[in-house]
Amino acid sequence: MTATKPAAEPLSIGDVAEQTGLSVHALRFYERQGLLVGPVRRTSGGRRRYTAFDVEWLQICVKLRESGMPLADLKQFAELVRRGPGNEAERLQLLDTHRQRVDAQIRALEECRSVITWKVGVYAEHLARGEAGGLWDPTA
Predict the structure, then answer these.
(1) Residue 2: its pLDDT value, please?
(2) What is the pTM of this model?
Protein backbone atom coordinates (compact mmCIF):
# COMPACT_ATOMS: atom_id res chain seq x y z
CA MET A 1 0.00 0.00 0.00
CA THR A 2 1.00 3.59 -0.50
CA ALA A 3 2.54 5.48 2.40
CA THR A 4 0.21 8.07 3.87
CA LYS A 5 0.83 11.42 5.49
CA PRO A 6 0.96 11.51 9.30
CA ALA A 7 -2.42 11.01 10.97
CA ALA A 8 -2.31 14.48 12.56
CA GLU A 9 -2.28 16.22 9.18
CA PRO A 10 -5.71 16.20 7.50
CA LEU A 11 -5.73 15.27 3.83
CA SER A 12 -7.62 16.97 1.05
CA ILE A 13 -9.74 15.03 -1.41
CA GLY A 14 -6.98 15.60 -4.00
CA ASP A 15 -4.37 14.12 -1.66
CA VAL A 16 -6.55 11.07 -1.08
CA ALA A 17 -7.24 10.66 -4.79
CA GLU A 18 -3.51 10.66 -5.44
CA GLN A 19 -2.76 8.15 -2.68
CA THR A 20 -5.58 5.72 -3.50
CA GLY A 21 -5.73 5.97 -7.28
CA LEU A 22 -9.43 6.84 -7.04
CA SER A 23 -10.75 9.89 -8.81
CA VAL A 24 -12.27 12.74 -6.84
CA HIS A 25 -15.61 11.72 -8.37
CA ALA A 26 -15.12 8.10 -7.16
CA LEU A 27 -14.25 9.32 -3.65
CA ARG A 28 -17.48 11.29 -3.50
CA PHE A 29 -19.35 8.21 -4.80
CA TYR A 30 -17.79 6.01 -2.10
CA GLU A 31 -18.89 8.53 0.52
CA ARG A 32 -22.47 8.75 -0.84
CA GLN A 33 -22.72 4.95 -0.99
CA GLY A 34 -21.72 4.55 2.65
CA LEU A 35 -18.51 2.72 1.84
CA LEU A 36 -16.38 4.65 4.32
CA VAL A 37 -16.06 3.50 7.90
CA GLY A 38 -16.62 6.90 9.41
CA PRO A 39 -17.96 10.25 8.35
CA VAL A 40 -15.57 12.43 6.37
CA ARG A 41 -14.83 15.51 8.38
CA ARG A 42 -15.22 18.90 6.78
CA THR A 43 -13.67 22.29 7.20
CA SER A 44 -15.84 25.27 8.14
CA GLY A 45 -15.88 25.98 4.38
CA GLY A 46 -17.25 22.49 3.64
CA ARG A 47 -14.06 20.98 2.20
CA ARG A 48 -13.52 17.32 2.93
CA ARG A 49 -10.65 16.45 5.27
CA TYR A 50 -9.55 12.84 5.39
CA THR A 51 -7.39 11.00 7.90
CA ALA A 52 -4.64 8.45 7.31
CA PHE A 53 -7.13 5.84 8.55
CA ASP A 54 -9.57 6.89 5.79
CA VAL A 55 -6.81 6.41 3.22
CA GLU A 56 -5.88 2.99 4.58
CA TRP A 57 -9.53 1.91 4.49
CA LEU A 58 -9.97 3.22 0.94
CA GLN A 59 -6.88 1.34 -0.22
CA ILE A 60 -8.45 -1.87 1.09
CA CYS A 61 -11.72 -0.99 -0.66
CA VAL A 62 -9.88 -0.39 -3.93
CA LYS A 63 -8.32 -3.86 -3.79
CA LEU A 64 -11.61 -5.49 -2.89
CA ARG A 65 -13.35 -3.78 -5.82
CA GLU A 66 -10.47 -4.47 -8.24
CA SER A 67 -10.76 -8.14 -7.31
CA GLY A 68 -14.45 -8.10 -8.17
CA MET A 69 -16.16 -7.74 -4.81
CA PRO A 70 -19.74 -6.67 -5.47
CA LEU A 71 -20.64 -3.19 -4.26
CA ALA A 72 -23.34 -4.66 -2.00
CA ASP A 73 -20.76 -6.86 -0.26
CA LEU A 74 -18.38 -3.93 0.17
CA LYS A 75 -21.23 -1.90 1.70
CA GLN A 76 -22.00 -4.76 4.07
CA PHE A 77 -18.33 -5.06 5.04
CA ALA A 78 -18.10 -1.31 5.73
CA GLU A 79 -21.27 -1.46 7.81
CA LEU A 80 -19.89 -4.34 9.88
CA VAL A 81 -16.65 -2.46 10.50
CA ARG A 82 -18.61 0.68 11.46
CA ARG A 83 -20.54 -1.31 14.05
CA GLY A 84 -17.28 -2.16 15.80
CA PRO A 85 -16.25 -5.27 17.70
CA GLY A 86 -18.47 -8.30 17.98
CA ASN A 87 -19.12 -9.14 14.33
CA GLU A 88 -15.70 -10.42 13.32
CA ALA A 89 -17.13 -13.83 12.33
CA GLU A 90 -19.48 -12.10 9.86
CA ARG A 91 -16.59 -10.07 8.45
CA LEU A 92 -14.50 -13.21 8.08
CA GLN A 93 -17.33 -15.04 6.29
CA LEU A 94 -17.81 -12.16 3.85
CA LEU A 95 -14.09 -11.92 3.10
CA ASP A 96 -13.63 -15.69 2.85
CA THR A 97 -16.52 -15.97 0.39
CA HIS A 98 -14.91 -13.26 -1.72
CA ARG A 99 -11.52 -14.97 -1.51
CA GLN A 100 -13.12 -18.16 -2.81
CA ARG A 101 -14.57 -16.23 -5.78
CA VAL A 102 -11.15 -14.72 -6.49
CA ASP A 103 -9.52 -18.15 -6.27
CA ALA A 104 -12.03 -19.49 -8.81
CA GLN A 105 -11.31 -16.56 -11.14
CA ILE A 106 -7.58 -17.22 -10.84
CA ARG A 107 -8.07 -20.90 -11.71
CA ALA A 108 -10.19 -19.94 -14.73
CA LEU A 109 -7.59 -17.41 -15.89
CA GLU A 110 -4.81 -19.99 -15.47
CA GLU A 111 -6.78 -22.37 -17.72
CA CYS A 112 -7.19 -19.59 -20.29
CA ARG A 113 -3.48 -18.79 -20.12
CA SER A 114 -2.67 -22.45 -20.67
CA VAL A 115 -4.73 -22.54 -23.87
CA ILE A 116 -3.19 -19.29 -25.08
CA THR A 117 0.32 -20.54 -24.31
CA TRP A 118 -0.38 -23.73 -26.25
CA LYS A 119 -1.71 -21.75 -29.24
CA VAL A 120 1.28 -19.37 -29.18
CA GLY A 121 3.51 -22.44 -29.32
CA VAL A 122 1.62 -23.86 -32.30
CA TYR A 123 1.97 -20.61 -34.26
CA ALA A 124 5.61 -20.10 -33.24
CA GLU A 125 6.50 -23.64 -34.31
CA HIS A 126 4.76 -23.30 -37.68
CA LEU A 127 6.34 -19.89 -38.33
CA ALA A 128 9.81 -21.21 -37.40
CA ARG A 129 9.38 -24.05 -39.93
CA GLY A 130 7.96 -21.68 -42.54
CA GLU A 131 4.69 -23.60 -42.54
CA ALA A 132 2.34 -20.98 -41.12
CA GLY A 133 0.29 -20.44 -44.28
CA GLY A 134 -3.19 -21.83 -43.97
CA LEU A 135 -3.29 -22.09 -40.17
CA TRP A 136 -6.95 -21.70 -39.33
CA ASP A 137 -7.64 -20.31 -42.78
CA PRO A 138 -11.41 -19.87 -43.17
CA THR A 139 -11.01 -19.50 -46.96
CA ALA A 140 -9.31 -22.88 -47.40
Answers:
(1) 52
(2) 0.80
DSSP string, 85-123: TT-HHHHHHHHHHHHHHHHHHHHHHHHHHHHHHHHHHHH
Is 16's pLDDT higher than 50?
Answer: yes
Q: What is the pLDDT of residues 42-76, one digit of tens each?
A: 999 999 999 999 999 999 999 999 999 999 999 99
Contact 22, 30 (CB under 8 A): yes
Q: Is the dihedral of CA 86, 89, 91, 92 positive or negative?
A: positive
Q: To 10 degrees, the CA torsion angle through 58, 2, 52, 91?
A: 40
At 3 the pLDDT is 56
Query: In Å, what is the CA distance from 116 to each residue of 15, 110, 111, 112, 121?
Result: 41, 10, 9, 6, 9
Quick one: how many helices (H) and strands (E) in the chain? 5, 2
- Among 131, 34, 29, residue whose Cα is nearest residue 74: 34
